[in-house]
Amino acid sequence: MSEEVTNPRPDAVFLKIQNVAKSDSMFTPTMDAFQAALFLEDTEPDIKPFGYITIPSLHVQKENPVVIDQELEIIDHEQFARYTTLVMQSETYRLAVRGQTDLHLGALPTSKVNFNKVMTSQGNPLAFSIFQEVAYGSAGLNKLRGFRVAGFNITLTAMPGQPNMFGTAFIPNPSPQTLTVGNVTQDLFVGGTPIGNTTIENLVLRPGDNYVPITSITDQAAVIGLLTTRFQTGILPVDIRGRTVVYNGQRLPYFERAFATTPLSTSMDIGAALEKIGLDVSALTGGGGGQPAS
Fold this sequence. Notes:
Immunoglobulin-like; mainly beta; eight-stranded antiparallel beta sheet
């Protein structure tokens, strides 16, 4: 199976799901296409759909290819932001699907079928049991666990307000989803002290390992101050908090919330990067070295 979210805008995304729906029934009826509401189960019984998908018509066999390929209009922005945050933070997540359709079997009278089901399905986001349920669930991004800065370089000649650190971030995606996100800007902190921001441009998270270029604008005076006092080893523990997400010039509040509420952390060997450009951290610290100062 595969799932793709592309062309994100403030009011819509494009959704493509390819999967195989399975049935254990001995019957092979035909199910009409129908609209299904997507919602979070904690809004029941008065559900709050954030959008609708069209489940295609099926002549039900043991295995049935299913393709959903459509624009998903966001009709409840608060609920969609909750959904994207759930995907970002969960190892697996639960999503409810509700709708009604007709079922035809030979000369028998047409049957009305109500679909209303929630289940968790790691890595299998569309399961189907012909008489009772459509269920939608999937592996999530699991808080981007394993995130790290895989390498970076520092320049001391950048103009004020221009990037002065360039590197590569490793971002794992344990889900089957490909997510087009956009330009992600995040703030950087060390022990609560702000040291700048970093940007990942045109971020697309594909299943598996993602290595993406990053650029940062850092307060080099603040960084040197930390190296000469609290972190004389040259290694800084950096906390990262999401600030903005922009795609095609438009901010995407639902992705912004997901990143803002999913803090990341990494260790960065600033000392080694400074040595590459001829600066010795031990000289800056008076030869202190050792563990971070208390």
